[in-house]
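A reminder before we start the practical. When you read a complex entry, don't treat the lines as separate problems. The point of joint prediction is that each chain is placed relative to the others, so the output describes one connected object in space. Small molecules and nucleic acid strands, if listed, are placed in the same frame. In the example below there are two entries. Take a minute to note the order of the lines before looking further.
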Amino acid sequence: MVPAEAFAGLAGVALFAAPGAGLAELLPALRALPPARRLAYGYLLGVAWTAGWLYALSHWLAVPLRSPAILAVAGVPVLAGAVSWLRWLRRRRGEPDPPPSRRTGSRLFVEWLALAIGALVCLALLGDTLSDSLADWDGRMTWSTQARYVRSEGTVDPRVLSEKGWYLSHPWYPLLLPVAQVAVLEVTRADVDHHAFRPMYGAFFPVWLLVIYGGSRVLAGRAAAAWTALIAALLSFPAFSRAGGAASAYSDLPLACFFGGGLLLLLAARPRLSAGLAAGILLAAAVLTKAEGEILAPVALALAGLYPLVPGDRTRWRRLWRLRWRALALAALPVGLALVLLLSWRAGIPESFESFEQATSWSYLWPGILSRAPRIARDVRNEMVQFPDWGLFWSVAPLVLIAGWRGLRRRVALPLLLAAVIPLGVGWVYATISLKPDFMVRATWNRFLIQASVPLLVLFALGLRDLLRRAAWFPRALGGPRRKTRTNQDEQGRARTPCRVRCAHRDRP
Amino acid sequence: MSRPGIVIDNFAVLSFAGSVFRAITLALVAVSVLAALPLATVRVGRRLLETASRVGEDARGARQRVWGAAVAESLDAIRRAIPADGEYLLVDGGEEPQGATYWVRFELAPRRARFAGRLSEMTAPLRPPSLPAGPRWVVIAFPDGPAALLDRDDFLRRFLRHREPQSGPR
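Here is the predicted structure of the whole assembly.
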């Protein structure tokens, strides 16, 4: 690692973080988030916006994927965000300072622990992505090879895709992440052998942690969120695996972030219009990131639409639906556009789905879904109990969900559960119809777990919250329940003050 | 059935069992964190040390470290021979699960590849040697050695003599 190359890698991350920060500034629902979570969502929006527009402009208008176009696309939200921020500063100058935010208590030890361990893992990952070249399987076989062809011809329709007979793995896979790679390499003028795009993938790990922490914090509280983030940070597979983690150039972790982040924004009790738009952009990116995204993004929209129908009286359904439908409609717009773009782009590929058809046969689905199930279940279990990849997590997580079942009685739990089950169901069906199911489980199951990870870990946090609340013996510093003292009762009273009153100063006009 | 005089409070028993189950689960969560810590420490520590040891090594050096000097040199030689917008026939010198053709194709991209087949199948005695029409160059990807570059006529001539080419740059 030499300074100039390290700088190029970091500039690659900034290429998406900056427009993302601009977009977050423009969208009130994201502007109201605490800085770290705003940055995380901003990064996702930045990748989605920049690579998504470049994908569309290159395919529909033949705009060359070179620095001027890349900087123009990334620059628009940066400028718009800066103007919005300056206007807000000017308006604020005449107003009295907002009251300082009052926390309901000091940070718990487990929060510090999660922060410290998460930061160390991210630092190690950053060092790895800055200093080592790409050495994973799918990254070299599929994603980065396609990025090299796209970069060379400056278009998302290079000859290897649009002509028949060239040797290319999975030509029908969507190209959002390869386009993001090209953007980094072009803007930093990186040599063909320089891995300047790897930190861009590595940055998805802290984003993933923050999305999980944010979702858990809102739904399950500080202690459960901190424990969940700590446990997620300690999982080796999402961070360091060369077969789907942030250290690789696989698209599964980005897909998990786009899908999970979009879903969590839509599952808010009263999603604002800006939250709907942000969720739509993230889910559109999910469509363009990986083939599974074509299923997961509409699923997220459907779950958010059906959310008001989760048990409750009819009047409540109507009220909830009235609060949500505009945000949902706004979210569906970018997803629809992304699907149209993907279909239009794929129409120009003569060997679409060939690799999928060679590896699978739908004739195995029945009765394979029953007859192959025991074998697949055994292989799946073997993957999930691999200590070097997952530690003891998958052995403990079901117990937490069972023991903390009261925490799952909330309205939001059912859509989260379905959102977690559907990617795993896709993986199961894929293994069932595969010609080599054992190989398919070995090669893909962990990645389906990653795709389902955000809703799964938020569900885990809900279960854990219930366990922590009921464990009077558990130390407070580790998230145990608060002892009832007079001062605490005062604090609890304050905490019960409606959020609208406490957080009014955070929502800037 | 309980005898008269002994009252079993089902609710209290279930509640106690639930508390024990929850306590055990929480303890297991703590154990899972403690069990993951040493492995995470080793992985984080190793990566930080590796990063420190690679200060001053450029991308080219990193590539040589990953591939080995001989393989990296053979790939560079092939890159010099085939122009960046050129094309070649790719032959697998190993078996599919070894992935040699994937790595060589990645290293040679954006040069376009046409897959010509597996060397072990091409050298079968009863099979006449043939190559798809098109590119002049043939690259053979070996899983455990440098890739070989041959002219298509040279490749066919060697096959006619039933001799597998030696791996190494040309």
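Discuss with your neighbour: Chain A touches chain B through 64 residues (CB under 8 Å). What might explain this?
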